[in-house]
Amino acid sequence: MSFNNDRLITKVYDPMVRDFINVAKQLDGIEKSDFFKRRRQIEEGTRTYLCATCYQALVLRGTPTKVLYHYQHRHSSENCPLQDKHQLKIDEILAMKFNGQKEGLRHRTAKEFIHDAIINDSTKRFSNTKMEATFLDENPDTLMTKTWRRPDVSSLYALDGNVKNIVFELQLSSTFISVIVAREEFYQRNNAFVIWVLLNFDEQRYTDLDIAYGNRVNVFVLSDKAKVKTLATGELWFEVHWRDPELIENKIEYEWKKELIPFSKLIFHDYYMKAYCYDVDTKEGDLKSQLPKKERNHYEEYCSFCREATPSKYILKERLCSNCMSPKLD
User: Fold this and answer.
1) Contact in structure between 264 and 166 (CB atoms under 8 Å)
2) Residues near 252 by beta carbon (within 8 Å), at least 6 away in sequence
3) Around Cβ 172, how many Cβ atoms within 10 Å?
4) pLDDT of residue 2
5) Strands 162-170 and 192-198, sheet pairing
């Protein structure tokens, strides 16, 4: 099924393959995880798609109430006939979200709860715990305009003879993926693990999913049950949500699951600077290796243009990369 009649941009230019791509063929029917991974790659700058009319860089967006994935001009783009004229400037939207949210009662209460739980942690692994302490950029990029952050809670965490910088950022409302990626890149550049904390998880909300797919599809929620467990045990607990893959009749199916876990059970990946509980990416890779060859090829064939294993799509008996729509070699 094609939704191109509802899209302003129906064709994009991919400089990696040096060709135009039909948006409907690329995005209609794309698996949700592939969409959110591609969306993050665009924001991180590892993939680029250009408007076929003005050749300005585009971003990948979606509509939660109606599954319509589409490309859109960045807010800073010059005028283009295919630009959505009704978009508010990103600064205006962020200002509206910020007012009354950052220091709202729920935000402050949750922040203080995490801070107090760490201060009184029974494992005695935390030290130098602070609320809203200024975090300076030790490796500033001259192109960056902001060389500091003020996380909700920051602390040092002792693990296996090493000390890790940990910052907790509460996210109560929706925000742009650019904001999420910018904060993650800042903390990672400064050797700090950022723990995004939600008060509830909505598997349809884009902010929640942008955080999840950037963290091996793990999301941490400070739920009421997690608070009760924290107070009862003297250790900080979260309700972790993850998109669990399972192999069912030679097909990988996904289901969102949740479980209460203590902070001490988190896995810290020092190379990617990610903290998670369930390694969904590795499990998914293991399941793909168990598929029969035909089904496995659907997931794992290498795309020479994307330079990675990507899902395949067949159009008129031609095998194409689902991400960039370039032909795959037999």
Assistant:
1) no
2) 245, 246, 284, 287, 288, 291, 299
3) 17
4) 45
5) parallel
Cα–Cα distance measured from residue 135 to residue 148, given in angstroms and rounded to the nearest whole number: 5
Tens digits of per-residue pLDDT, 54-72? Answer: 888 899 988 766 568 889 8
215-237 tens-digit pLDDT? 999 999 999 999 999 999 999 99
pTM tops 0.85: no
User: What's the token pair of residue 46?
Assistant: 């590892």
Q: Which two tokens stand for residue 54?
A: 């003005």
- The structure tokens 């935000």 sit at 107
- What single-letter amino acid sits at 185? E
Report residues of the chain scoring pLDDT below 50: 1-3, 86, 88-89, 92-93, 95-103, 144
Give the containing element (helix H, strand E) for 109.
Answer: helix 105-119
Four-point Cα dihedral 200, 129, 188, 164, nearest 10: -110
How far apart CA 18 and CA 15 sit, in angstroms, is: 5
As given in the structure block, the two tokens for residue 193 are: 């693990």
pLDDT at position 172, please?
86
List the one residue out of 15, 142, 10 whose CA is nearest residue 82: 10
Cβ partners under 8 Å of residue 68, min gap 6? 3, 6, 7, 62
